[in-house]
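Notes to self after the Tuesday call (sharing in case useful).
The group wants a holo model before anyone commits to mutagenesis around the pocket. I volunteered. Ligand is magnesium ion. Logging inputs and output together so the record is complete.
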Amino acid sequence: MRIGNGVDVHQLVFGRPLILGGVRLPSDLGLAGHSDADVVCHALMDALLSAARLPDIGELFPDSDPALEGANSLELLARVAGKLGEAGLSVVDCDITLCADAPKIAPHKRAMRENIARTLGVSVECVGLKATTFEGLGFVGEKEGMAAIATCLLDARA
Ligand code: MG
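Result:
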């Protein structure tokens, strides 16, 4: 078994869609980034790649690559899943915490988990996702940005 963790942060700005776990949420603010800036998928990809001892997403999907401008992070996650398969690794379980003071995440959690599970080829029960607020404190609480933390377990016995 291999474990990995990943962390990601993106800035909230006007004029960008808010996409989390492949779900577009209603919001005046969206996350800034070269890709769709899906902070949930980015933290998870880094956890998976770290567990697989592969290069991180900054190396695999660099900001300098024009082909990745506006990239759908679920498609990037599918590419990561392909790399795990090539390395003989399978996803056992993963868990993600999204740090966001707004908007309400609860109504969208199931759809995010289903998107991630489908992309990884695992049961939705193998994808944990929760959200927490920062009680108005710091960059999350001031709604200047969002952060996500992910943990995963991979099986290397395939
Ligand atoms: Mg990112």
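Two things stood out.
The longest helix spans residues 73-86.
The chain has a mean pLDDT of 97.
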